[in-house]
Specification:
Elements (H helix, E strand, L loop, with lengths): L1 E6 L3 E8 L2 E10 L4 E9 L8 H15 L3 E4 L2 H9 L9
Parallel strand pairs: 4-5
Antiparallel strand pairs: 1-2, 2-3, 3-4
């Protein structure tokens, strides 16, 4: 599975691709220049149970760590994943 990021300036998204198909998408909105808000995470029903959502959250956390950014997880799924993984919590705003 491949996770791609597409930043469109004020907003962006991470998408999970498997066999050239979109398995999931997680949207975010910038909150200034050093923080972003994870708005929504959705996974295609054909890929449920494959850890797609967690992989997208992990990619967002890695992006935040690499760029010294903070994350505000308004999406309940993303918030739950970050809270359950202590190594992700350092990026919380």
């Amino acid at each position: 599975m491949k996770i791609e990021q597409n930043d469109e300036g004020r907003k962006g998204f991470f998408q999970a691709l498997k066999d050239q198909k979109q398995a999931g998408k997680m949207t975010y909105t910038w909150a200034g220049t050093r923080k972003f808000i994870i708005d929504h995470t959705e996974v295609d029903s054909n890929f449920k149970g494959e850890g797609v959502g967690k992989k997208m959250v992990e990619s967002a956390v890695d992006f935040a760590k690499e760029n010294k950014l903070k994350v505000i997880p308004l999406c309940p799924f993303a918030k739950n994943v970050i809270e359950k993984n202590p190594e992700f919590q350092e990026v919380l705003a």
